Amino acid sequence: MTKAKTLPFRAPLVIACIAKYVEHPKVPRVEQITSAGCAVMAMQQAAFALGYGGVWRTGAYAHNPHMKTLLGLDAQDEIVGYLYLGTALTETIIKPEKPAESYFVEFAG
Asked: What spatial distance separates the first Cα and last Cα of the chain, rounded to whole Å?
């Protein structure tokens, strides 16, 4: 419980990213949730482009029914994650590139 109380203070800005599901004949639930995830990634990339750091977290607090209640969500809504934004405390470590072949396998169907 003590750790939970300190989590929001790890960054100067924390955005709770929500997929507020609305039944729609042409936009299924999975697409609504996926588009919310894309919005989180776009916000994170925009922060990086502006020179800020950003960490997208999910985990137990993103899947907790009590958190949904605290945020005023309905049962079918989803917490896509929490985006922590601020000035990075360390420089990003650039990992060596892996050859593209290590990401793909040939599929012969």
From this structure: 51
Q: What is the pLDDT along the chain (109 residues), one digit of tens a residue?
A: 677 788 888 899 999 999 999 999 999 999 999 999 999 999 999 999 999 999 999 989 899 999 999 999 999 999 999 999 999 888 878 889 888 888 888 888 7
Interatomic CA distance for residues 46 and 97, integer angstroms: 23
Question: Which pTM value belongs to this model?
Answer: 0.80
Is the CATH code 3.30.70.890 the one for domain 12-103? no
Q: Which residues contact 52 (CB under 8 A, 6 or more apart)?
A: 85, 86, 87, 88
* Contact assessment for residue 49 and residue 80, using Cβ atoms and an 8 Å cutoff: no
Q: Using the structure block, give the residue that is written with the tokens 């809504």.
A: 77
Task: Return the SS3 of 81.
Answer: strand
Q: How far is CA 63 from the centre of its chain?
A: 12
